[in-house]
Amino acid sequence: MRHSIVIVDDHILIAKALASIMSNFENFDILYDCGNGKELQDKFSYKKNIPSIVLLDISMPIMDGFATSKWLREEHPQVLVLALSMQDDEKSLIRMIKNGARGYLLKNAAPTELESALKTITNNGYYYPDWASSIVFSNIANPPVDELPVEIPLELNDREIEFLILCTTDLSYKDISEKMLCSPRTIEDYKNRLCEKLTIKSRVGLAVFAVKSGFV
User: Fold this and answer.
1) What's the confidence (pLDDT) of residue 1?
2) Domain count within the chain
3) What does the DSSP assignment read for the chain?
4) Which of 129, 155, 169, 201 is the most exposed place for a label (fewest CB within 10 A)?
């Protein structure tokens, strides 16, 4: 299956370089590039311009990556957002995740990591390198006290919520089954059911959902 990509970056040379690199990736096609989120909004007026993935720079004039990712989450939730940044900034990472970004990549990443990120985000729904995953789980353990939970899109029962919260810990699935006093098979059923309900494909994705939804 082929996936279309749009690059949103105000640095023309970087955008063109990224397009050149990704043109060699199997099953990925570059549609076009934009200089900021407002240009992307204008392009999205035409259905043919809506891609599978938006490779989104954070620091841009007029409409930055934060505002753009939030708009995409609200208006085009089917589009996968892979954020790009010059720095491993914790606040930017968490904010982009909460605005709907499905992945985060530093601009100094090797082309092989970029290709891996694109494949992972299309196959699993999320991509976070090791350093980003550490920040995500640290934020889960110590959430800001002034944050309000987002609206839950559907009903979850008490046991599903309990499992979802335990997914944010470092417990193995076997440990979770012992803590919840049920079999590993039941835990697998909870995982599969939640992944299906929430359209999520990994434990990291479930953990991120738990944070964004205010369960932890």
Assistant:
1) 81
2) 2
3) --EEEEEE-S-HHHHHHHHHHHTTSTTEEEEEEESSHHHHHHHTTSGGG--SEEEEESS-SSS-HHHHHHHHHHH-TTSEEEEEESS--HHHHHHHHHTT-SEEEETT--HHHHHHHHHHHHHHS-B--HHHHHHHHHHHHS--TTPPPPPPSS---HHHHHHHHHTTSS--HHHHHHHTTS-HHHHHHHHHHHHHHHT--SHHHHHHHHHHTT--
4) 155
147 shares a domain with 123? no
Q: Which amino acid is it at 120?
A: T
Q: Which of 139, 169, 203 is the endpoint of a domain?
A: 139
**Position 150 confidence tier, pLDDT thresholds 50, 70, 90:** very low
Beta-bridge partner residues of 105: 84
Domain boundary, last residue among 106, 139, 172 = 139
- On whether both 66 and 40 belong to a single domain, the answer is yes
Same domain, 126 and 164: no
Q: Fill in the amino acid letter for 167.
A: C
| pLDDT on residue 133 | 59
Q: Which domain holds residue 150?
A: 143-212
pLDDT of residue 131: 66
pLDDT digits (tens, 9 = 90+) for 47-82: 999 999 999 999 899 999 999 999 999 999 899 999
Question: Do residues 118 and 168 share a domain?
Answer: no
Q: What token pair was written down for 93?
A: 């990472």
